[in-house]
Design a protein that fits this description.
Structural class: alpha/beta
Number of strands: 22
Bound molecules: NADP nicotinamide-adenine-dinucleotide phosphate
Strand order of the largest sheet: 9-8-7-4-3-2-1-10
Number of helices: 20
Strand content: 15-25%
Distance between the termini: 20 Å
Shape: elongated
Helix content: 25-40%
């Protein structure tokens, strides 16, 4: 069993007690009391915590050293004395390998803390002797700069420490690939192991900890209370990532892109897996721009079949990189994706066959056809596409194939001319876009996207009540363009509706399950409502906190 550990700290015994209770309510099955982050609370007060939570879930006692992210400047002796005095509170005592290796005094103090029986005063004044000999030792190592060069040998040194029951390695992930090494360490460790990658790129190590049998993962009680970069709230781990259901047979899906922290993909696909009773989890995989980082991620992921990667969404800036990678590796690219030159979905078939597909084009065509009353009604309609990037290319390809008369306008005129020539449609100058009499307008620019949500790619007086307006931008949901379109009496389709359609198509490709655009529309609505109720920070855990 992998424990969900929530670190607790605070400036009063009352808030510490309340936070312990909230953590357990949120799903924590272990508490870490961070002594180095507890100020203005006496040890005597802390010793009364046995009746708050320590009796209900196991407790780790930590007084982290400053060089490994602790918030105390107390010398080793003082930190160790505290652990010794408060030892009876704990089920586990966490000590850094570096502290233990500083000398015999440190090792003796830890031995004493592990064995000490003590008189505990419970609320009501009753005194009992408790917890002698019952504690276990966690030997830990944290590196906030990156992967320690000595990772493997550190593991060996840690497991060799007298009475070591659990090893804990945490380091700052340089790329998402560092997580794979964390899982390898868990798999080879001769004792129960925690291996965590800190920072946004390390989220995978937290979410998949149960898949590889880690001893524990760490999550914050609430956003803003992170004790390490990349920590996410326990509620997000259990609800957004269905952490309690992840086990050794869980298949793994994810969205590759940059940025991806804000993606709705995990909310929507994980909810769909739950609804269909599928043992799978979907995670954000931040891979920085460029073909080499994309290729390195894919090669290392494919070299480890035990990771159980079963499918990827691919988003900006990697859709073209996915085409190149699949071509180089002898994968298949379906004809639509090949013609568009962009893959937004990768499937892995049994036997390792890789297939790239594009569900963006069908999402736009199907949304437009449904709004107009069926595919036959779409044929012959005049459509103005704004933009000439990836989304515009998918839209133009799909709409030309559906028999629409497509015209493309783009801020950089040459791109509109090149795209229209490639797909056999027309181009018009960006300055002339308002004078074009069309049935439908599809915004495939980034104009209107947060934080520039006051902007629209069309002047409001250019919109006519008999037009259908499709918006690709989905952050915010109601863009300036859509607001102007409503004002003018136009029919509209928002970006989240398109998102739901392309996600539903991906889900069908990956699972073979019948899931409709309407089903996914409801999942998207629910995810958006949850986000509105509890907004996410820019990055998981931001840069707050110093070390797990
Ligand atoms: P992209 O490849 O980067 O293309 C961006 C386009 O926006 C380019 O044509 C660019 O014109 C234009 N543009 C940027 N700033 C502009 C400005 N100030 N004025 C006029 N035009 C401007 O991006 P993409 O992948 O196509 O994505 C476009 C939008 O679609 C994004 O908001 C994305 O989130 C959204 N999208 C939504 C879905 C969905 O499921 N709803 C799916 C895919 C994409 P230049 O060529 O002149 O730079």
């Amino acid at each position: 069993m992998t424990h969900l550990v929530v670190p607790i700290f605070g400036d009063s015994i009352v808030s510490i007690r309340e936070d312990m209770a909230s953590a357990i309510e949120t799903g924590a099955d272990m508490i870490e009391l961070r002594l180095d982050m507890i100020h203005d609370v006496s040890d005597d007060e802390l010793r009364t915590l046995t009746d708050a939570a320590a009796g209900r879930v196991p407790m780790i006692l930590t007084c982290r050293s400053p060089e490994e992210g602790g918030e105390t400047h107390a010398p080793d002796g003082e930190r160790l004395d505290r652990l010794d005095r408060l030892g009876p509170l704990a089920d586990y005592i966490d000590i850094e390998l570096t502290t233990l290796e500083r000398g015999d005094a440190a090792r003796a103090a830890v031995r004493s803390a592990l064995c000490r029986a003590d008189v505990i005063t419970q609320s009501g004044g009753r005194e009992v002797i408790e917890r002698g000999e019952s504690r276990s030792l966690i030997v830990s190592r944290h590196d906030h700069r990156g992967r320690p060069a000595s990772l493997q040998s550190d593991l060996l040194r840690m497991t060799g420490v007298e009475r070591c029951s659990v090893v804990k390695l945490a380091w700052r992930a340089r790329t998402v690939r560092d997580n794979f090494e964390a899982f390898e360490l868990i798999r080879i460790s001769p004792v129960p192991c925690v291996a965590i990658c800190m920072g946004e790129e390390g989220l995978l190590s937290r979410v998949l900890a149960p898949k590889f049998g880690a001893f524990a993962t760490f999550a914050s009680l609430r956003r803003g209370d992170e004790t390490a970069p990349g920590q996410i709230p326990a509620s997000e781990l259990t609800e957004r990532f269905r952490w309690k259901f992840v086990d050794s047979t869980t298949r793994v899906f994810g969205v590759i892109g940059d940025p991806v922290a804000h993606s709705l993909g995990p909310d929507v696909h994980n909810a769909a897996f739950e609804k269909h009773g599928i043992n799978a989890v979907y995670v954000p995989l931040r891979v920085i721009a460029g073909y080499e980082p994309f290729k390195a991620f894919m090669v290392e992921a494919l070299a480890r079949p035990w990771l159980d990667f079963s499918g990827f969404s691919v988003t900006s800036p990697h859709k073209e990189n996915a085409v190149r990678f699949l071509t180089e590796q002898g994968g298949e690219i379906d004809p639509v994706a090949a013609r568009i030159g962009a893959v937004n979905t990768i499937l892995f078939h049994k036997g390792g066959r890789m297939v790239g597909a594009n569900t963006d084009a069908s999402a736009i065509v199907d949304a437009l056809s449904d709004a107009l009353g069926g595919p036959k009604r779409a044929a012959g309609r005049s459509v103005l596409i704004l933009g000439a990037g990836g989304a515009a290319r998918a839209a133009a390809f799909g709409l030309v194939a559906a028999g629409c008369n497509v015209t493309i306008a783009n801020r950089t005129d040459e791109r509109a001319v090149a795209l229209s020539a490639d797909l056999g449609c027309r181009a018009c100058k960006w300055e002339d876009r308002s004078t074009f009499p069309v049935d439908c307008i599809v915004n495939c620019t980034t104009v209107g996207m947060s934080p520039n949500d006051g902007e629209s790619p069309m002047p409001p007086d250019a919109l006519r009540s008999d037009q259908l307006i499709l918006e690709s931008v989905y952050n915010p949901r109601k863009t300036r363009l859509l607001a102007d379109a409503h004002q003018s009496g136009c029919q509209t389709i928002d970006g989240l509706t398109l998102f739901a359609r392309q996600a539903a198509a991906q889900f069908r490709l990956w699972t073979g399950r019948d899931s409709t655009a309407a089903d996914f529309g409801r999942l998207v609505d629910a995810a958006v409502h949850r986000r509105e109720a509890a907004p996410m920070a820019c990055q998981p855990g931001g840069e707050a906190g110093r070390g797990d």
